[in-house]
Each structure stands twice: as C-alpha cells, then as structure tokens.
Specification:
It is built from three helices and five strands, in the order βααββαββ. It is of the alpha+beta class. The protein has a five-stranded antiparallel sheet with strand order 1-2-3-5-4, with helices on one face. The longest helix is centred in the middle third of the chain and has 24 residues. The relative contact order is 0.23.
C-alpha cells in the first residue's frame, strides 16, 4: 500500500518561507537529472529515466508488494508532474530525482507561470484534471519553488521510501 497524506481540499502544497529560496537538501541525498527541453516522447522518457534510477538505487526489482507499490507510486508521480508541465506550463525543462534512505524527491522544472492545484471538488468520474489530486494523495508533501526574477518554477513532490 502506498503512503498517503491528506491535504485539505484546495491545498496547493507548501511554498517555503522566503519563496524561491533553495530548499534544505540533506547531504546524503543522491540526485539524477534529465534535461527534457528538446526531448521527444517526454513522458515515457521521464518514466524510463525514473525507472532506471529506482533500479540503480535498489528499489527495483522489488522484492515485496510494498516495495513494488512504492516504485509504482514514484513512476506515477513522475508521469503526472511531467504531463502537467507539458499541458499547463509550456513544457518541462528538467526532471530531477533525489533520494535519501527515507525519502525520494521528484522535481520538475518548467517555464510556466501558473500554480498547480488539485481540481476541487474532485470528481472521480469526470475525465482529466486528476494529476495533482493523485500527487497529493500519494506523496508525503509537495509544493512549488520559484526563483526570484526568473520565469518558470519547480514543482516538487516527496514520497516515503519503502521500509
């Protein structure tokens, strides 16, 4: 089963104090970065990149159902964040995935000015608009970072590492 954290309806995720300030990154976090600016087949490319990182970090192949579900959650979150950047933010520029023994962080850098938000009220039967709802349900936390005086943003999400 995946780890979920409930957010109130309409919650847009955290934007840290001093919006645009660099987040505190644990020294032991390992990062992988993929440039997406000129890529074709962006979503499958991003998923393949994430799958390879999970394999290299020992999340895949998964030995248990819990580990398999955790890896599938990561791949789904990558797909949703990259798809949202394609549809709503002038396309993704970069995908970054980092992990510590306890948390995996996905970051998608895009050129868009908009603010991602889960559709409220959420209607499961209505097509489209489920991406950020899925992200908020699967992740420990998520948010948006903006650099001062620079276009675009980084949408990030953190998932718990499997036990």
């Amino acid at each position: 089963m995946s780890t979920t954290r409930q957010h109130p309806p309409g919650d847009l995720g955290r934007e840290p104090d001093g919006a645009g300030a660099a987040p505190t990154v644990p020294a032991e976090r390992q990062w992988r970065t993929l440039s997406l600016g000129q890529a074709s087949g962006i979503v499958p490319t991003a998923r393949d990149f994430a799958r390879q990182a999970l394999h290299d970090w020992g999340w895949l192949p998964a030995a248990t159902a819990e580990r398999r579900a955790a890896a599938e959650d990561v791949l789904l979150v990558v797909s949703e964040l990259v798809t949202n950047a394609c549809l709503h933010a002038e396309g993704p520029e970069e995908l970054r995935i980092g992990h510590t023994p306890k948390v995996l962080r996905v970051e998608v850098v895009d050129r868009g000015a908009g603010q991602p938000a889960p559709r409220t009220p959420h209607r499961a039967g209505r097509p489209g608009g489920h991406g950020m709802f899925i992200v908020q349900r699967l992740c420990l936390d998520w948010g948006v970072l903006r650099a001062p005086d620079a276009p675009g943003k980084t949408v990030w999400a953190e998932l718990a590492a499997p036990a």
